[in-house]
Amino acid sequence: MKVVIDKERCMMAGECCYNHPWLFAFGDDDYPVVQAVEITSEQQRKEARQSVQVCPSGAISVIE
Fold this sequence. Notes:
The chain is an alpha+beta fold. It has one domain (2-63): 2-Layer Sandwich (Alpha-Beta Plaits). Helices cover 28% and strands 22% of the residues. Strand 2 (24-26) and strand 3 (32-34) form a beta hairpin. The longest helix is centred in the C-terminal third of the chain and has 13 residues, at 42-54. The model has no long low-confidence stretch (mean pLDDT 94).
């Protein structure tokens, strides 16, 4: 599983970073970046899917 952020859609609300700090962090350009290279456990997969739902701009997607 891979998590991707579309920076053109991102409005930098930070919900991903606040709700899932193990997965996202703010980058040097203040846009969130994905910190986890590989998502392997079922709990991590669940939280990655949740991050899609909490993103107010719909900028996060999950590739299975």
